[in-house]
Design a protein that fits this description.
The protein is α+β, with helices and mostly antiparallel strands. It folds into two domains: about 170 residues, no CATH class; about 130 residues, Histidine kinase-like ATPase, C-terminal domain (Heat Shock Protein 90, 2-Layer Sandwich), CATH 3.30.565.10. It is about 65% helix and about 10% strand. The chain is built from eleven helices and seven strands. The strands form two sheets. The chain has a five-stranded mixed sheet with strand order 1-3-4-6-5, with helices on one face. Strands 2-7 form a two-stranded antiparallel ribbon. Strand 3 and strand 4 form a beta hairpin. The longest helix is centred in the middle third of the chain and has 80 residues. The two termini are about 55 Å apart.
């Protein structure tokens, strides 16, 4: 969070730079005057002139940090040679130059420059200033301030790099999340299109094949089946229009979209299967529950795909759908009594894959495979705890 000074400096950078240089100059001159007052033998105006030159050089500290640091270091040495004690105030331009270089440079460069500046302070305090009897004031104190300025500049640089890294990581995470959502949405739409196309085209193919088989021997039955064929194709077109309509939307509005099918549409599904020659028996155990749209669509699509597989692969034309409701789960079971021809087993085929993906997406379990007594079974259990909307009315 930016302070008021930072916001003002961001809006008026030139004015902020002028204010900064003036404050450094004022502090440095004040330190010179205080030292001159304590030690009247020191030369005042040469020290003020050197301070002005050092502060003026700070204007280029961001573009030319190394020359500015070297120049301010020479000015600090000159102040010591003039007989002044190198206090933090008097060393202000040097400390600012060292901080600016540390903020902009790598760690090795920062500390190499800091050690050179510190060595200059050691030489100045040991050989040029008149305070040889007090090495703490003449040597240790100015050296420590130079190193402290370098350390603080390095800390600020690391904090800024960390902030930039965090911002880049946050952008990367948002991009990854967006890509993940796109992939998930593509998979969801692919499942919808697969279920719609596979189911309706399979039933239409079965109806057409049955009608062709009965055309010569039972023409009345063949005509009746052909008469129901437009219902199957119309249902396919409606669901395809609804699925493709999701891809054309610019927003998430649900206006003018066909409601997603659910378990309440099982009678229509059973009738469509009957028109294709597949007899389906539906049994319900327990009190029926009203499901959320997501769970309701998941259950319907699993039953629909299971019946599609029966219509494509089973040698018999019968299937049993069982819905079992408990307080926390709904179990869907679709079975047929004959072995399946061309079935890929419980783990293969896009139909079984999409059913498993749908079940696991809502936290359920899925199983498909041959039964010991013969035939094939698809069973899944869907949790109601986080999806239940209460008893059906």
């Amino acid at each position: 969070m930016k302070t008021g000074w930072q916001r003002w400096a961001a809006v008026r950078p030139h004015a902020a730079e002028a204010v900064t240089l003036f404050l450094v100059f004022a502090i440095t001159v004040a330190a010179v005057v205080v030292t001159w007052a304590v030690m009247p033998g020191s030369l005042l105006w040469p020290a003020v002139a050197v301070s002005a030159l050092a502060c003026g050089a700070l204007r280029w500290r961001r573009k030319r940090p190394f020359p500015v640091l070297a120049f301010t270091l020479l000015c600090a040495v000159a102040q010591g040679a003039l007989g002044y004690l190198l206090t933090p105030g008097l060393m202000g331009p040097l400390l600012v130059a060292q901080y600016s270089l540390s903020v902009q440079s790598r760690r090795r460069t920062t500390w190499n420059s800091a050690f050179v500046a510190a060595l200059g302070m050691v030489v100045t305090g040991s050989l040029l200033t008149p305070f040889h009897q007090s090495p703490v004031l003449a040597v240790v104190n100015p050296t420590a301030w130079v190193l402290l300025s370098a350390a603080f500049g390095s800390y600020v640089r690391v904090r800024r790099e960390y902030a930039v890294a965090r911002a880049e990581h946050a952008v990367w995470e948002r991009e990854e999340e967006a890509r993940h959502r796109v992939v998930q949405e593509r998979m969801r739409i692919a499942r919808e299109l697969h279920d719609v196309v596979a189911h309706h085209l399979t039933l239409a193919d079965a109806q057409a094949g049955t009608a062709a088989h009965l055309a010569h021997t039972h023409p009345d039955q063949a005509l009746a089946i052909i008469g129901k064929l437009p219902q199957t194709t119309s249902a396919a077109l409606r669901e395809l229009k609804a699925a493709v309509g999701l891809l054309r939307q610019d927003t998430d509005t649900d206006d003018d979209l066909t409601p997603a099918p659910g378990l309440d549409d099982l009678p229509e599904l059973v009738g469509t299967c009957a028109a294709a020659g597949l007899t389906v028996t539906v049994t319900v155990d327990g009190a029926a529950r009203r499901l959320t749209p997501v769970l309701d669509l998941t259950a319907y699509r699993i039953v629909q795909e299971a019946l599609t597989n029966v219509s494509k692969h089973a040698t018999t034309r019968t299937a049993v759908v069982r819905l079992a409701y408990t307080p926390h789960y709904v179990t869907l079971t679709v079975t047929n009594d004959a072995t399946e021809r061309g079935s890929s087993g419980p783990g293969g085929g896009f139909g079984l894959l999409t059913m498993r993906e749908r079940a696991t997406a809502v936290g359920g379990t899925f199983h498909a495979g041959h039964r010991p007594q013969g035939g094939f079974e698809v069973a899944c259990t869907l949790p109601l705890d986080s999806h239940d909307e209460g008893p059906a009315t």
